[in-house]
Amino acid sequence: MDGVGKFTKKWFEWAFQTSGMLSFCIFCAWIAFEIFFSSLLDSKSNERDFVKRYLSPEVTNVTFNDGYLTHRLIKMDLNYGITTVPIQQKALGNVNQFLEEVSNKCPWQDTDKGVFSYVACANERLHDIFYYTPSVDVSNNYAIHRSDCDTNTYLMMDALKMKGRYAYIIYAPGHAFLAWKDSFGNLNYWETTSGNNKGQLASLSDKLYDKAFERTYYTPVNDVKAEKIYNALIYTKSQVRVDIARLYNDNRDNAIISDWYFSARDEKKKITRDEAQLIISLLNTDFTSVDKKLAVVHYMMQHNQKENASVIFGTIPYEKCGRDCFVTGADMGNVVYIFFRKPFLIYDDFLRKHASGAYLNDFYGGVFFSISALIFGVCVLILPRRSFIKIKNSTENKNHSDATVA
């Protein structure tokens, strides 16, 4: 019985070791997949949720109203060649459906409590018609029922405008949300994207709202100014190019517009020495701007200032380092960036077709767990097999010994 017990124990240990390593291998592979494709998985989940509940209207209202910010932005997309007339009509139809739903289902009382309830109800109607996914231009996304922080806020501003109440878009680094004034003249902040565009009160202490000293951020912006900023946001998408130089000259104090201006100058390698010095000065307060940092890094690299360029490049956090940032790191001679350049670009190309693009923190996290899964996968193939052979040989030797004794 003692021999049988030892034999059974060895096989049990082998099975436990193998299953444990295999489980950890699968776990690492699953974590890698979740990290690599988190943005894509979230968007697909939001889309599936939307498809289950959306009811298309029997009649589509495509009437254009110049008084609505969303309508003007949709028209701007058409003028700049970003969209087509059929898509413009679909976008107008979906926006008008939202405004009609708000008008029919959201009661209005011109009190602080009444406005709050109206905003909450309007955001629920937004959730009914648009699901959350990263977006830039309004028309091509509204047309297929997609909307994000900026495009949500435009819709909510129009919903409040229907009741004669002015609302504002508040820009934070990489984000935007809604604001309106209460009876005391103080701003109320509302996050439009929560719960797949259901919305909730904005808590500015949340990590979603990056802190910034640049006065462009966390300052209320009305619909007229929002239109000008939107001109800059669609610069790279426009077929008939936005006059970004004129836009910048008219709005030099706006960090978002200046980001796009310097990025455009950088793309054409036209950043001057004075502009580089200006960018460095602007970064004292606009320290979250990746576009400005990359523009001045590229200028420094072109003028043999690699050490200074490396210092500035090192201030870009991984979670904000996308395609241009990664390519810059490789061009600067960073061995890791060079080694992973092609895989990262393939990964980014894939995500751009479905979501918003790749960032370094997700890529590195996915690579780490992929390598971990690979290592444990190899271990599963090698170590348990060695243990299996050792146990088998031990069993055969024991049987041979028993036969000899007999």
TrEMBL record:
Regions that span the bilayer: 21-41, 363-383
UniProt keyword list: Membrane, Transmembrane, Transmembrane helix
Superkingdom in the source lineage: Bacteria
Protein name as catalogued: Uncharacterized protein
The species this protein was found in: Erwinia tracheiphila
